[in-house]
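Task: encode each sequence below as structure tokens.

Item 1
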Amino acid sequence: MKVLVIGSGAREHALCRSMSLDPDVSALHCAPGNAGIAEVAELHAVDALDGAAVAALAKNLEADLVVVGPEAPLVAGVADAVRAAGIPVFGPSGEAAQLEGSKAFAKDVMAGAGVPTARSYVCTTPAEIDEALDAFGAPYVVKDDGLAAGKGVVVTDDVDAARAHANACERVVIEEFLDGPEVSLFAITDGETVVPLQPAQDFKRALDGDAGPNTGGMGAYSPLPWADPKLVQEVLDTVLQPTVDEMKRRGTPFSGLLYAGLAITSRGIRVIEFNARFGDPETQVVLARLTTPLTGVLLAAANGTLADLEPLRWSDDAAVTVVIASHNYPGTPRTGDPITGLDEVAAQDAPSAYVLHAGTKRDGENGPVLSAGGRVLSVTATGGDLTQARERAYAAVSRIGLDGSQHRTDIAAKAAAES
């Protein structure tokens, strides 16, 4: 099977790494990719937002499956262009991807499906914003309605900061604050059948102790030893399947990866947000534990045959991912710094720990790997329990050099201590 993955982040590196280990995959391509992905897949230059260009590349490569990784190409309808070319594609249509592309649309779908979520207001004027902020009070939760690369949400006790963020957006969703721990749960769906993956927890704040600004995610772990064993089934029954059914009822069936960001509140499960693709950094830990070959599952979703698959198989190991970010992230990150220690991790820590690239590029054909974004690397490790997985992850992190870089030191610490 020939597979083409669209994207250039750690999520796409995790997908490519998983599929490179699949004996059914005869050729693996990625566009545009990064320095790490180049080690497991052939890279191609393409504008990931240009559906016609992606479809043409897939046809030229005679791809049997295209996997569209990031949210922006999905919302732009890249998957539609590939489908129109007659090539199986894993990823929702542009219309269906509005579950992530518009917070207001997602709220409307949840209302139609009876999915539990936070009470909210959709605001477009300063007066509406002030009314909504007054209605809910602190902590204030303000979400840019559109895509914002994981940085469109502000949670703050400062009403002026909340108001400033809201007024800087064309349209915002302001909602009640949800108490309790957060959980990420992915599900693969073909528009009818829904196959949930294992839950994970990520860490959004930049600094230890959940301090600092929101980010795209600074680390993650799986499994969740503190979670109710019935959690996945409950979310499937009350959130995932009803949402997929509602999308089908509306004439915009959702096929691909449905991500539910959840809060386990004192009043039960509530949906914080939906994403239309694998989330980063949770993908790294979830795929590290999946033992069923991934490619066949994604192809079944693309072809509408998920119901025919055997149940997914999972390792009993735990997995932890620690993100190494560049100087000043999540502000304007510094780029172009050389990265050292990657070979040492490969030589001393593999296969229980490995590095997935996000914001990297190679300086020339055989030159050094340089930082090229905010979140630069994800160091992922597995172990018999969370404690061992943490130790292996941080041992690998310690070998990596990136001037001015930052990472959290407390990823999965509380869960490991309590398990």
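Item 2
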Amino acid sequence: MGELPLAPIERILKKAGAGRVSKKAAEEFASVLEDIASELAAECAALAKHAGRKTVMAKDVRLAKKKGF
């Protein structure tokens, strides 16, 4: 299992309209989110490095999101 706790994942799914959420569904959703977050983090780090920084900043996250995340 990944690093994301399941309770917030279940809340996100319920807020989106799900009446009930199985544990397996929450685990799978968390896994998908972790994959997306990992790709986004790598893009953010690359943008910071390209800008000559070691620190990822909010503008890197916004730019990475615009690029397709």
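Check on item 2: The first helix runs from residue 6 to 15. DSSP finds three helices and no strands in the chain.
End of task.
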